[in-house]
## 1
Amino acid sequence: MVRNVLGAILALLGAAAAVSSPFRAWYDGRHGRYYRLGELFSGAGVTDARAELFGSLFLPCVVAAAATLIGVVLRSRLLVAFAGVVVLAFTVLWMVRVGQAEGQMVVAGDGSGLGLGVAGAAVGGVLLLLGAAVMSGRQKRQPRPPEYADQGHAGDTGPEPTHFTDPVPPPAPTLDGPQHTLEGPMQPYGEQPPYPDPPYEEPPYGEGQQGGPPTDKP
């Protein structure tokens, strides 16, 4: 968070320096807004013809400032670095074209050589690159765990086992195999022994004798 703030401050300062540089003297007292942008890419080089505002060096500086603002809002290091490269690239290209047209470039204190506009553009481009380097960029948000992960879910039975074993089911009973009862193994119906006869019980005295029980009648 702190790196993003510091990087944004450096980037905004660089964008402000770059976008204000065309309104200052670049060479021999001539402002950067008077240099035609198309002359930097032509074989004739820089001439004394004046350019319109959005047809001059002001255009790449405005594009760089807009890219800087978007990059700061989105915390995009790529956009801020792109803005710095654009400003420095057009500044160096302008110096090459002016050097070809003038034959030499001088720095004089009386304003006849390089002016503050070139210095402002160069410093602005460097600050933009420094801001992009300092910024940490956007950080990916990690998904939040579900709420029941800490409190436990109603259907949660505990930690899952690390390995699984297939339980061996018991063999299914068949009619061919031996079957058991509480008293022992069950035999086939045809081979079961007959039921044993009930034990013999002796009848009470006098019930099994002839003539019946004795009576008192004559």
## 2
Amino acid sequence: MVMRTNTTHTTNPINATDATNTQAGTTVVPGGAAVAENLRLDFAKSAPKVFRALVGFDAAAREGLDPALVELIQIRASHLNHCAYCLHMHTNDARKAGESEDRLHMVAVWREARHFFTPREQAALALTEAVTRVADAGVPDDVYARAAAHFDEQELAHVLALILTINTWNRVALSTAKVAGTDGRG
């Protein structure tokens, strides 16, 4: 059964004030673009136990980690996975939590802008890249050792778990064609 609840882009942007003039089955996202119904399943409704398990895994992974670090990890993995839905969500969450625009703009190029990030954040970003791209070269020993030097074992386990959860969320969003700006969180 196909559920029609997620959304995909249309090519006809509209003015947000014209939302009442859109056809049934469309939504207006920030910026005024019209978004049409998606024919892919709604993962949360189609597999509620799995969805709740992922939410629980995500919540457990975050425990004890600095919220700013959590968002940096999620933003970097979402960049690498080309997940606009999660990137939009986590950059907005980071802004709401007080993250600077400068740092948000530099996450994708953090190696060239190291002075924006602490050594601990750099270690987490490097680990995020290695785990996200694990099929390319595994997780190199030096990347793991650098992370282990900045996080105790419990923290490192939580960082790894967080990297695993955001990679899973990215794949769910990409597979079900979730559209940036439609998460309802603003």
## 3
Amino acid sequence: MKQPEQTKEAMFINLCDTTGAALEHLGMALGWDPVQPRRFGGRTRDIDLNAAALLFAGTQIIDVVYHEQLSSRDGSVRHLGDSMTGEGKGDNEVVTVDLTRIPPQVDTILFLVTSYTGQSFDQIDNAFCRVIDSTSGTEIAHYNLSGGAHTGLVMGKVVRAANFWRFEPLGATIHAQHPVEAVPHMAPFLTTPQTSSDT
């Protein structure tokens, strides 16, 4: 079984196993508990969290995969289906990434969670998201999301390196209910393309 190699000196995880072989398939999984019924009756609003992957070339957004667009244009990133209530045990939404098929111009993939129905995370029980090696099932990173007045979380980013990809945990809170709303908040987490100056 492949085991991701974590580089502790820097705050990133090289997405390769202990032999140096690059990992090829990642998953970002999201789960949460459904809203609890009120003790004395009355309607309660369902909790709908969304998992998303945003693909960038430098600071330019190239593609977005989320509940309204279940696949990137080239099929390398896929959303496996929308849960609108959090019903069921374990992962409620999963986004898969085939790193071998990511377009060459894409250098960053941001993993994002938003509260589509607008509840802040301090109103949501047992919310979590995690990144896994989809081939082995090994968990690379795990976040407990419950708590806080925010409605969105930038979980982390997958960044292209010389011979492999690496995962950088972020855990940055934002206020956004929809992935499209979140795009303007992504600038601090992106690499500005370098330009060569004339000599």
## 4
Amino acid sequence: MESLLPNVEKIYILLKPIWQKKLGITDRAVSKWENGKSIPDASLMLDLCQLLEINVNELLTGEQIVMKDYKKIAEQNLIELRNQKEKADRRLLTTVKILATLSCISAVVLILMGTLLTKISQFLGIMVVILGTILIFVTAIYAVMIEHDAGYYECPNCKMRYIPTRKAVLLAPHYGTTRKMECPYCGKKGYHRKVFTK
């Protein structure tokens, strides 16, 4: 990824101290943009463009765009943003899987400890078992909500990709991230697999 901002000196002059404080932008964030390690948050892009007197595509490419190349560069920027979202969704889902696994292991350990503690103190043992059970349910619900938000589901019948309701994802029988749901397009039930692109 190339440098995302066209004129480093202009940014420092304009953003510090007034705009940086007003927009809540840190030196570290600006440095990441300049080095091409990240892009400005979508909520900041229009304000930054107005400040720098450039358009969003120029902000993302780091160069001034000639009108004849505008459509091509705009499409490339959209593709790049979509690819970045897909990568972020994959990382998020992987992180949630790891955290859910660790949380479930912790919950099982708590439940086993609770059953052993009932021999010493019945009240304490029951409380630890309840804590372990709550941990499992909270982790499962959180993991399903993150799974819902990351990407789409693909119908095995019509191959359409869609985002189902959270309730449908939460209540659907599943294995891994493949869930048995009804397709909103063809109306058929089937095991819909998780995909990251539309």
